[in-house]
Every structure is written in structure tokens, then in C-alpha cells.
Design brief:
Helix content is about 35%, strand content about 20%. The chain contains 15 helices and 17 strands. It has helices spanning about 50-65, 85-100, 120-130, 145-150, 155-170, 185-195, 215-220, 225-240, 260-265, 300-305, 315-325, 335-340, 350-355, 370-375, 380-385; strands at about 20-25, 30, 40, 70-80, 105-115, 135-140, 170-180, 200-205, 245-250, 250-255, 270-275, 280-285, 290-295, 310, 330-335, 360-365, 365-370. The longest helix is centred in the middle third of the chain and has 17 residues, at about 225-240. The structure holds iron/sulfur cluster (SF4).
């Protein structure tokens, strides 16, 4: 990789552009879960699928001049609950995307699905539309835990959804949560083992946290103590490691060859276009890196014609890069930092030295990785890279 020249403050020189992904946001759910702070809205009647797909494609068109000549390597249709959309709508969406931007051969196309909104025929329809990977929001296989989380489905429905996904796709992720109200270590272990037993090649395990603007924030449930949650995290890493899953990101575990390429592109500070209500993106140019974001409320987003691009100040780039790359237990190369930010690696020398002295990162000549302590105290580690 050529050395990067920083000509003057605010002017970067990127010698190669990173892979390009597309995130599509579908903002509706059957019901709002009490812990959820995503941009998701309870559907009130029939969804405006046709109009929304047309708007998504308009959003994409508005972004095209920024990415002429580039190819998409991955697409992620997230939400909300994208599986509420009919396979015909997803087909219209993906056909429209392909007509506007070429896909790399073998590109990954993920769709998020929730139990209670899917059955075998629907999964086959998504596959025929061009989806290659399904992410099922199971959260738990325990009826009591699912009730405590206010989910619309029970354990039996979750199992049926996973089986139906696996009948149509070989690339399936399960989202599970731990640190749930009233959950013991044994209960968390049973959930993870149930996830492994389904045969999926990818699992994501998230700790339940209480976020502002949620029902749980105003009516907090009693959650397991901090130490118990830390024990659950260690247990999950051990159980999944024992079953041949690689822990490749804070919350993500994959069998060989089954890492989520879309999320990896975020974590390696790649580029992504965001379309849909509240979606945001990041685009690199040879001399700058920008962000864009669409209006959050679906009704406002439907009226929005154009999106503003904001240039990321070079002094913010080290933190932005680390926010993603330090989630990778195996870390990142010094070349990747330079290639993605357009900054010389020496620009983070002092912060890295401080992190090393605190035992939060370790490095050799070409690679930086968070230590176990750095992974556990990620926020403390990241603060060292905040702009002065
Ligand atoms: S299904 Fe997912 S996106 Fe929808 S409200 Fe529940 S947690 Fe949020």
C-alpha cells in the first residue's frame, strides 16, 4: 500500500476506495418491543410496500453520483422487521438496486426476519428474490424470557422460524440476548446451546441493556448483576468456541467461512450507502470521507427528496475508525488504518501508547489488537482516541 499524503488539514489522499455495501432500512414491526431503541414503528394496518420500495430506489438514485463506477459487495435489509414485506416487494427492491448499481459476483444479501412473520414459503420467496443470508431475531428459546422481553413469539415459533430459514438458506444467523430479567447462568447456557443445536453457522449474542426512550427505561425490569452478566459473556465465548465458532467481533460468532461480510465491512471502516427512514451511510472519495443520513420518521422520509452529505473532519477519523475496528478481537493492520482513513499511522501513536500502557491493546510490527481487558473495557479504550 502506498504511503498516504496528508496535503493540508481537511484534505485526505486515499489511494484506494474500500468495499461498498448497501444498508436498506425497513422501519415497521408488528409491535414495539419494550427494550428496543431502534428506528422501528408499530405498523398500523397495511404497509405501504410499493410506495416505500419506490422511495428506497429514489434514495439510492440520489446517492449514485457519489459512487459512479463502483460495485456493491454486500446488501443488508434490516429494520424493523423486513420479513413483514412480501417476497414480491423484496424482489422489486433487489431488481431495482441491481439495475442501478452492479453487484460483485457472489455478493452477500442479508435479510432480517422475525419469528411470527415468516414461514417456509416466504423464505423460499426471499431466496428467489436474491437474498443469500437470513438473520433471525430469536433472542431466546425460553418462553418465560420471551414474555419478559415482550416478544410477539414463543419458543416453539422461534424454532419453527429457524428450521424454515435453514430449509431455504444455508447461511443463517440467530440473534440471541443474554442478561435477561430473571435469567441465571444455567438459563443463558441453555439458550446458547439451543442456538448451537439448530445447526446455524452464525450466532450473535447481545447483552440486554436499558436504553433511553424505551419502555424498559421508564419501567426498568430487574436485570442480573454486572458480574453475572460478565460470567454469561465468558460462558458464551467458551461454549461457542468449543463448538467450532470463531469469535470474530464483540458479539458475533461464525463457523469458518461464515462471517457476515456486510458487518465486517462496517467494522473494517468500509463504505456503505444507507437508504430508507433514518438510514445513514459513509462514502469515501480520493480526498475526503462523508456521511449522510435520511429523516428518521417514515412520514418525513417519504417526503424527502435529497440527503445532505457531511464531511468527517480528519481529526474525528481515528476515533471513528477505532469505534469499529477495535470490536474485532483479532484487531487490524496498520495498513488498514492508513488505507481507510487517509491518515498516517503516526497520527494515533500517542493514543496507542497510552492504551498499551493500560494493558488495553497489544501490537506487533503490523497489527494492533485489543487485549482481553481491552475487549471487556472497550469504552475506556475508545476514549483514548477521542479528538482533543
Ligand atoms: S422486533 Fe426488533 S426492531 Fe422490532 S421492535 Fe422488536 S427489537 Fe425492535
Amino acid at each position: 500500500m502506498d504511503p498516504v499524503v496528508l496535503e493540508k488539514p481537511g484534505t485526505l489522499r486515499l489511494h484506494a476506495l474500500p468495499p461498498l455495501s448497501l444498508y436498506v432500512h425497513i422501519p415497521w414491526c408488528v409491535r414495539k418491543c419494550p427494550y428496543c431503541d431502534f428506528n422501528s414503528h408499530e405498523r398500523g394496518g397495511a404497509l405501504p410496500e410499493r410506495d416505500y420500495v419506490a422511495k428506497l430506489l429514489n434514495d439510492l438514485e440520489a446517492l449514485l453520483p457519489s459512487v459512479w463506477g463502483r460495485r456493491l459487495s454486500t446488501v443488508f435489509i434490516g429494520g424493523g422487521t423486513p420479513s413483514l414485506f412480501a417476497p414480491e416487494s423484496i424482489d422489486a427492491l433487489l431488481s431495482g438496486v441491481r439495475a442501478r448499481l452492479p453487484f460483485e459476483p457472489g455478493g452477500e444479501v442479508t435479510l432480517e426476519a422475525n419469528p411470527g412473520t415468516v414461514e417456509a414459503g416466504r423464505f423460499r420467496g426471499f431466496r428467489d428474490a436474491g437474498v443469500t443470508r437470513i438473520s433471525v431475531g430469536v433472542q431466546s428459546f425460553d418462553d418465560a424470557m420471551l414474555r419478559a422481553l415482550g416478544r410477539i413469539h414463543g419458543a416453539a415459533e422461534a424454532r419453527r422460524a429457524v428450521d424454515a430459514a435453514l430449509a431455504a438458506f444455508d447461511n443463517v444467523n440467530l440473534d440471541l440476548m443474554y442478561g435477561l430479567p430473571g435469567q441465571s447462568l444455567a438459563m443463558a447456557r441453555a439458550d446458547i446451546e439451543a442456538g448451537v443445536a439448530t445447526g446455524v453457522p452464525h450466532l450473535s449474542a447481545y447483552q440486554l441493556t436499558i436504553e433511553p426512550n424505551t419502555v424498559f427505561f421508564n419501567l426498568p425490569p430487574r436485570l442480573p448483576e454486572h458480574d453475572l452478566c460478565a460470567d454469561m459473556q465468558v460462558m458464551i465465548e467458551e461454549v461457542l468456541g468449543g463448538h467450532g465458532f470463531e469469535h470474530y467481533e464483540t458479539s458475533a460468532f461464525a463457523r469458518p467461512g461464515r462471517r457476515c461480510r456486510h458487518n465486517l465491512n462496517y467494522w473494517e471502516f468500509g463504505d456503505y450507502l444507507g437508504v430508507g427512514a433514518g438510514a445513514h451511510g459513509k462514502i469515501s472519495f480520493p480526498d475526503r470521507i462523508t456521511r449522510h443520513e435520511w429523516a428518521k420518521q417514515p412520514a418525513s422520509h417519504m417526503k424527502e427528496q435529497a440527503v445532505a452529505h457531511r464531511e468527517i473532519a480528519p481529526r474525528e477519523l481515528p476515533f471513528e475508525f477505532m469505534l469499529n475496528a477495535l470490536r474485532l478481537p483479532y484487531g487490524f493492520s496498520t495498513d488498514l488504518f492508513t488505507a481507510r482513513t487517509g491518515l498516517p499511522f503516526s497520527s494515533v501513536g500517542n493514543s496507542l501508547k497510552a492504551a498499551e500502557e493500560k494493558g488495553l491493546v497489544e501490537r506487533d510490527v503490523r497489527r494492533i489488537r485489543p487485549t482481553l481487558k481491552g475487549q471487556r473495557f472497550l469504552n475506556e479504550l475508545l476514549q483514548l482516541f477521542l479528538p482533543a
